What does this fold into?
Amino acid sequence: MSLLPMLPPAVNAPMEILHTAVGRVAVYHARLEGQGVGLPPLLLVHSVNAAASAAEVAPLFDHYRATRTVVALDLPGYGRSDRSDRAYTPRLMTDAVLAVVEWMRTAFGTGQVDVLGVSLGCEFVARAQSEAPAQIRRIALVSPTGFSRSKRRHGPPGTTLVIPWLLRLLSRPGWGDRIFRQLTRPGVVRYFLKRTFGSSNIDETLWRQAVITAKQPGAHHAPLAFLSGALFSADINTLYETLLCPVWVSMSTRGDFTDYQGRNSVESRPNWQFHAIEGGALPYFEDLPAFNTVLDPFWI
It folds into this structure.
């Protein structure tokens, strides 16, 4: 019998399992004692794809741990969090973010936190802030979904883009698992990372983590929901337009995530700021100092 590869830590920090209403949620945390600048704790939320984990925000975690308390979670269905066979929805993901926010407020004795999301994770961050505005002070959205010109989404509240027949097909015993195994072969993972980075110069540590995390038990459940559209909010543009907190957005200039023409519904609002930052959808892997030169002032 072959042994599964051991999943290494996604972030070089202590990891804790929270037992929440949405199941086990893994969090990595680094507490800064005696914060000189007085910034609230920061929560980092990774994207959603076939092989996601908190490893996608590791450079930001390492950067911010020197100046503030920082936490990164594995969303449900990913990393070391609960990967059981259940319905993976924006509601589930948002509830996980809110559970971690509440844990941070208790663990670190703070009234508010800041939150940064990546790609589809931005939709969960925005929904969490809209539901807990007194607890989430500011949000930063890196390469957020929902701003393409041709796919504006003002659907009924709480609905998704799920394609029911596709979800049923992917949920059939054996079918979805076989598709997932093909999508997470090492060469295919590398291919999609190249598209994400907009370059063949991907981060090799991130690639290795993605390959291993995709081989863990239950790794296919959340990604198959993602493929069916079940994790995309049909009302996300309406939701973005309701946000009143300060919002910072990083727009990639390379790769598959460069269409932000739909931002015109919010970009003129004083609480929103958009920045085109050179690089792919994860620009902080490519030039961390340049990325943080633009982002850091936002938190102050």
The chain has one domain: 15-299.
